[in-house]
Each structure stands twice: as C-alpha cells, then as structure tokens.
Design a protein that fits this description.
With 415 residues, the chain is of the alpha+beta class. The chain contains 13 helices and nine strands. It has three domains: 2-194, Orthogonal Bundle (Arp2/3 complex 21 kDa subunit ARPC3), CATH 1.10.1760; 199-259, Helix Hairpins; 265-412, Heat Shock Protein 90. The protein has helices spanning 2-21, 27-30, 32-49, 63-73, 75-92, 97-120, 125-150, 157-230, 237-259, 269-286, 305-322, 353-358, 373-384; strands at residues 52-54, 57-59, 265-268, 290-295, 300-303, 328-336, 339-346, 388-394, 398-406.
C-alpha cells in the first residue's frame, strides 16, 4: 500500500512533464505560467490525497510540485500552487494540520528566494543539482524537526526510518523530474538553433529571389532608357528611372546589412533611442502622427550602435505607417534588472494571429508597398545581440512591439 501511494505521487508529478513534452509547438510559451499552475495544482492535490500516514505524520511529495511551479512557471505559479496546497492541507485536518500549513508557507518562501539563482545557472546539470539542493535543505529540516518535536521517549523509531527514506525518495524524484524538464528544454533550444540555421541556409535562396527583384526595376530602367534614346521629349521618364533605381538600391542595401558583420561596442541605449525618435519626428509630422517618448536612466548595451539604430528605426517607422492621421505612437524605454526593454505602441490597423505568425519572414508585409525584409533584418539584429522581439497586436486596436536587450555596466567599457 505504501509503495502504491508513493508511485501515485510520482506519476502525479511526471504526467504533467510528459504532457509538456507532447505539447503543440508555441502553445506553451504563451501560457507557460498558467499551465504550470494548473498542472502542478492537480499534482499537489493528488499528493495530499494519496499521502502515507505513519503515526501522526503525513508523508507525501507535495513539496516537489510547489518547487517545479516556482522553477518552471515563475513566482506567481509557485505561490498559486502553494496556496492550493494550503487549502488542501486545511481540508484534510488532523492533529498536525496547522504545522503542515506553516511548513508549506515557509517552504514556498524559501523557494521564492532561491528561484532567481536558478534562472542564472547554465542549463541542465547545474540546474538539476541546484533544484535537488533547494528541495533537500528545507525538507530535511522540516522532516527531522517535526520528528524531534513529536518524538516521545524514542517511540517513533519507525517514523525516523521513514524520514530518512522520505528524504532520499524526495531527492531522487526531483532529480528525475528536473532531468526530464531540462532535457525537454534542451531539445527545444536545439530545435530553435536548427530553425535559425535553416533561416541562414535560406539566405542563399533569398539572395536569388532578391536578384530577381533587383532585375525587375533594372529591366524597367533599361526599357525607359531605350525610349529616351528614341524620343528626347519624354522627360517624365527621368523620374521613373530614378524611382526604380532607388528601389533597387534599397533592396540591395537591406540584404547586405542582414549579413555584413560589424564591430561591437558599449553605448548608451537611451541616447540611441532618443536620436532615432528625433530623426523620425519630421516623418511622423508629415503624416500628422504624434510621437511620445519616455526614457529611463542610463542603460548601456554591448552591440553595434548603427545596426541598433537601423532596427529601431524600422520598428518605429512601421508603427508610424500603420497609424492614421491624428494617432499617437508611444516609445518607452525601461531597464528591468539585467535587461533593457523598449516598447513601441501604436493604435493603428493591428494584425491578426495569422499575420503575427508570418511576421519576420521575407516578403511578408502588411503595407501596400514593401517586401518585409526590413522587419526580418531588424528582428535578426536584435536576436544576434541575445535579445528578443515580441509582438502583441489585435486588428483595429493596434500593435505593441517589445524589444528586450541585455544590459552591461558602464564601467565595463572603461576596462
């Protein structure tokens, strides 16, 4: 009976991990915290229901779902699962239910204090060892502390033996579960790298496509030049020639900038953002669009300033062009711990979910004139700096672009 209940506890924790491995691509990232809260809440309740009673003590694996919720779902999910565990323990009652509730709260507080360190560790083995350690420390103190408090003349020797077995089983289980989690996350990272490699591979095909796109305006130029050579009175063709040449130059420039390596340096991001806004202000005024800007204190990043300017200019210009007369585009720069976050908000036409999925691919654009290469290049610039670009948009409401970049200390550049 004891083994059966322990195995139910283990399976209650393992099943959500297996479901995570079978999830549809992309769905987890959107609702990761909520998913972990729901799965681990179910797991912690099952652990409480199928607990093992030896003497007046309940033995189960309730602390593992709480820990997993903190590590892989964030602090909100962790505290949510801890609250569910508290409610479940109160519902069970018993002589030591108040002690059980206090221990759950103290354990959750300990996990919340340790979780930030977990995120900073390199993937897999360092994280697995750390997860096992932060589970072991409070669990051992609680288990043997409880046994000491209730031990009466050494009559609970069976409980002491169970305590040692319980600690060992806890560590083995959390080691197994975090190993599975980290393996799945490692697989996810490998897939992301393969996708990035595939994108690089398609640049060869993209080059052929661009060559075709360049050939089209040049063919037009050639045709008009031939007409000009036959009839000197068609002066209006000069404007068309210059327009097509500019378009060809723009396509070539955007493609070359997507592959050309540039030296990096540490520079103040807020100064760069302010300069880009200043450059685009006349462009916005021409369309009766208002630009508003909010900038935090100095935030320094390590990268190529010209490329960052190019990317920010593309993102902001897209927001301006998506807006209608009288709209406002808001640019906000904040520093969140070790990352700088730029938010560009417009209340323009917005995009559907399908359009958001295609965003950043070559030749996809929501504009009447454009080829999508500018957005693709801009996203790639941010990603090459270990940054991330996130889009939130709804048709008819507007679009929010969130650009996240790692920051560095100013004095790094002085060394």
């Amino acid at each position: 009976m004891v083994i059966e209940k322990l195995m139910i506890n283990v399976f209650a924790i393992l099943i959500p991990v297996l479901i995570y491995g079978l999830r549809a691509e992309g769905s987890w990232k959107i609702q990761r915290s909520l998913t972990m809260f729901l799965f681990m809440s179910g797991a912690v309740l099952l652990c409480l229901v199928f607990s093992i009673n030896i003497g007046s003590i309940q033995w189960d694996l309730r602390y593992i779902p709480i820990l997993l919720a903190f590590l892989y779902g964030g602090k909100r999910a962790g505290w949510g699962v801890a609250a569910i565990a508290v409610v479940g323990r109160i519902g069970q009652g018993g002589d030591l239910f108040l002690l059980g509730v206090v221990l759950i709260v103290l354990t959750a507080l300990f996990y919340a204090l340790c979780v930030n360190r977990f995120y900073m560790l390199p993937p897999k083995w360092s994280r697995i060892r750390y997860a096992s350690l932060i589970l072991l420390f409070p669990s051992a103190i609680q288990t043997f502390g409880t046994l000491i408090l209730i031990n009466n003349g050494g009559q609970l020797s069976q409980s002491w033996l169970a305590g040692w077995f319980y600690i060992l089983f806890l560590v083995m289980t959390v080691f197994l579960v975090t190993y599975l989690f980290e393996t799945l996350l490692e697989k996810e990272r490998i897939v992301a790298e393969l996708v990035a490699t595939e994108k690089d591979f398609t640049k060869g095909e993209l080059a052929a496509s661009i060559a075709h796109e360049v050939r089209n305006p040049l063919t037009v130029v050639k045709g008009f030049v031939q007409l000009l050579s036959e009839d000197k009175q068609h002066a209006e063709y000069h404007k068309l020639i210059l327009s097509e040449l500019d378009r060809a130059e723009s396509i070539i420039y955007e493609f070359l900038n997507s592959t050309k390596p540039q030296p990096n340096a540490i520079f103040p991001l807020n100064k760069t953002v302010h300069e880009v806004v200043t450059l685009l202000t006349p462009y916005a005024h021409e369309r009766s669009i208002q630009l508003t800007i909010g900038i935090c204190e100095q935030a320094f990043i390590d990268g190529n300033e010209n490329k960052v300017k190019q990317a920010l200019m593309n993102f902001m210009k897209n927001g301006i062009e998506a807006s209608i007369e009288g709209d406002t585009v808001t640019i906000q720069l904040d520093q969140l711990k070790d990352r700088a976050q730029i938010e560009i908000n417009d209340n323009g036409v917005g995009m559907s979910r399908q359009q958001l999925k295609q965003l950043g691919t070559a030749y996809f654009t929501t504009k009447e004139s454009g080829n999508g290469i500018g957005t693709m290049v801009s996203i790639r610039i941010v990603e090459m700096m270990n940054g991330m670009v996130t889009y939130k948009s709804k048709p008819g409401i507007g679009t929010k672009v969130i650009i996240s970049l790692p920051v560095v200390k100013e004095n790094v550049s002085e060394g």
